[in-house]
Amino acid sequence: MARAGHLTGARRRVAGLTLLALIPVGFLAVFFAWPVVAIVGLGFSSGGVTETLMETQTWELAGFTLAQAAASTAVAVMAGMPVAFLLARVRLRGVAAVRTLILIPFVLPTVVVGLAFRALLPEGGVLSIVLANAFFNVAVVARTVAGLWAHTDRRIEDAARALGASPWRAFRTVTLPALAPAITSSAAVVFLFSATSFGVVLMLGGSRYRTLETEIYLRTVNLLDLSGAAALSLVQFAAVVAALVLGAMARRRRESAVRLRARVETARRPEGAERWAAGAAAVVLVLLLTPIVALLLRSVSGPGGWSLDGYRALAGTGENGALAVSGWDAALNSLRTASDATMLAMTVGLLACVVLVSLRRTPDRAARAAGETLDAALMLPLGVSAVTVGFGYLITLDALPGDLRTSPLLVPFAQALVIIPLIVRMVLPVLRSVDERLRQAATTLGARPLRVWREIDLPLTARSVVAAAAFGYVVALGEFGATSFLARPDAPTLPVAVATLISRPGPLNNQMAYAACAMLMVVTALVVAVIDRLRAGSTVGEF
């Protein structure tokens, strides 16, 4: 009887989790799967998909996309490793500031980074694209690898050194294999972000250098070649799925590695051969600051020398009425849409985290497999063309009550789709790290699942939840891909306004664009500092 009651209780929990999972699953189905399937289906129905896949240009675009993504990943890994060592193994003043500094590029709007590298390398080209994508993603490598490196037992490395191994050989044969799960996981994420980069390639590549993402935009918006855009979306989707599978496998290995290794006084002042890593990290930090400084200087310079005209001009619509609204109105639009997107994403993301953690604990194999499938599905929006999703919204959402195509919520829905995976990746590992015995004790004392969540899980994960909300907010604030396609001309966000200004002639428009970018960068830096203060001392789930 007791066993039958236990099985009945387990089945009820699975049934309850299934109902709870309908919210994130339903959101993905309506606001991601439906638009994407619709746009791809429309492309197939119009014919020409097979012809596009057979064209040499298609595979040249795919080759360039993968090549620049691979090069960006290699640069980001090489630059991120010394910084990871600094964060994990060195106790010096200012390391906390370094942790904050390296995260700023990752959450900067793509238009900000594009303009920063245009100010630094006016000619643009492949080198600018690779460096800009690497600039974005150094934090992914540094913070992911540092999170595992800080937990590795360095006594094994010291033993190798005592047996006569050189510092390089000890690192190569002992430390590097231990860090491999984190390196592979972060490299897969960097590759994914670089392969689907839109704003950077659009601003730095011009008409000469195009990736699958920018070509999908060109064919959809300018040429109305839906069959060609659909074919390119399929190629891009295949590459994204491969990167996600690799990243998921590496992430599971990294989580296991963190649990199995004890943290043994890893932080100390650099000695001997270790100083080269600290020196290399210092060089990387200087290089990360260079585009930021170049952008700030460009925002206060004009044809006649130093000037604040760009900042003052934000109260207007730019030279020759470049904008439909003032720069400050665009900034307010950004704040409103980012707030709406963050609230929506937090609701869906937290529910998804609760479901994923609960399904992982259930003895039902089918339920655990469903949880792993949902976990992977939540990451897919990061790798599908924002143009595909945006155009899909315009041809599908009229079927919903109220016709969301004309609703001010359209942009927040698209932005939420982008930040939900990031929120899940920040909160889920922390939620999984909560000692299961605490939950079991509360359940034994009669607490229902909702009370267990309120009394146990929420207090232990509150700081990470708040940090995830802040992180999602700054990402939504600077989102450009889907927003550029969906925002109405009379209600642009600040990144869309920047792109409009930079495309219009006139020195004042350029100054306004750089001034707006500087404002976005300052806001981003302040929010990132708050995030790191909230997450101080935590390495679980960090990137």
Automatic annotation (TrEMBL):
Its main location: membrane. The chain crosses the membrane at residues 20-44, 64-88, 100-120, 126-146, 178-206, 226-250, 276-297, 341-359, 379-397, 409-431, 464-487, 512-531. It is found in: Cell inner membrane; Cell membrane. It comes from the Bacteria. InterPro entries: MetI-like (IPR000515), MetI-like_sf (IPR035906). One of its GO terms (cellular component) is plasma membrane. Keywords: Cell inner membrane, Cell membrane, Membrane, Transmembrane, Transmembrane helix, Transport. The keyword Membrane applies. It is a multi-pass membrane protein. GO terms for biological process: transmembrane transport. Residues 62-245, 331-532 form the ABC transmembrane type-1 domain. Belongs to the binding-protein-dependent transport system permease family. This is Thiamine transport system permease protein. It comes from Amycolatopsis marina. The lineage of its organism: Bacteria, Bacillati, Actinomycetota, Actinomycetes, Pseudonocardiales.
